[in-house]
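Journal club prep, notes for RB
We'll compare a predicted complex against what the paper describes. Inputs for the zinc ion case:
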Amino acid sequence: MIEEGRNRHRRRFRHIAAGLGLAALLAGAGQAAAEPSVSEVRISRHEGLTRISIGLSEAVQFRAHVLGAPYRVIVDLPPVDWRLGTEARLDGPPVTAWRYGSFGKDVRRIVFDVDRPVRIQKTFALPPKDKAQEWRLVIDLERISKDEFDRILREQRGTLPDYTAPGDEARAGQRARRDSPLVVIDPGHGGIDPGATGKNGTSEKDIVLLVAKELRDRIWNSGKYRVLMTRGADYYIALRQRFEIARSAGADIFISLHADSSPFRASRGLSVYTLSAQASDEEAAALARRENRADLVAGVDISRNDTRVAGILIDLAQRQSLHNAHRLAGAIVAALEGRVELVPKPLRSAGFAVLKAPDVASVLIEMGHLSNPKEEHQLRDPGYRAKLADGLMKGIDRYFAAKGKGTPARQGAAADAER
Ligand SMILES: [Zn+2]
């Protein structure tokens, strides 16, 4: 099953790459099982250009593009066996940092931060000169003016691959009735974007996935609701895609799970956020800024979203879904009170990009602070995570119970929304 899925996605990747005609190369002779391995990323200077070269056991299709604000160069590969740490030879500017990780289920992405506008002058693959050598994928970068860079961005708009993930771990229709409410759980971050990191090295992306699975199992076992996760493993999904997964599945509620890292070591407690253009306080505004950075870390073109999001926000204010989101947040806080530690005034709001589905009641839960040693320890504890998931389940129950038992849950919420 899993293999099948993967092959299907691989084909899609190939299609995307070939369709754009950026760098389509034949894969080496069919070694079926093993993924091509990456052993080196090197950045050097070559005839006035900056050359990124990636050492691989065989040639693969890859594609590269640039992004602005901040300047980045994105290289997408099919699944590979990554055999190097994060060390690379950085020969100084323009490349200031880089990172690697999953982007969607089937794309492996390298993001290079650059300190000035560049264009991709050419991409090609160098075959091995002899048996001992490897294939090299080469991306040559040329320094350009800001005007020229902006023109490239305009031209590439709409041509970048979307990698829309279908949503993971769908469990619908078997245990619960087909018309029972659909809960979408969104484990934040993933893959190339680890999210916040605790003192003991705990990654937010791992903790939120563990809690999400606990909650998913409870929802599934209740038989009262259908449940879907935006991701079920360690890969990244763009913020906009997360809520689009929920919308296209016809979700009733959307719960995004996070664990923050506060600049203040003493900060502790859980909080529940809803969307607003005006943040409830400065702390909430700063948190939303940190969370919205996820797309930036993962190399997503955010500029594409801007106009849409503004429109959606205005629209949203008039809709029932925001009212329902407040009720959902209230039900969750009421259910968690006394079970887990909450921040003072735990109901908060700010401009989280992931909460911008206009027709789904959406909340974001900061389950605790990885920057606080005690809370990091708690979130690593399976017993605590189970308690937390129990509380969240109670909150979901309260919310739907208040809406009327057994009613197909779309009642009220966005009944008029187009699907
Ligand atoms: Zn987060």
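Talking point for the session: Residues 59 and 266 are 50 Å apart (CA to CA).
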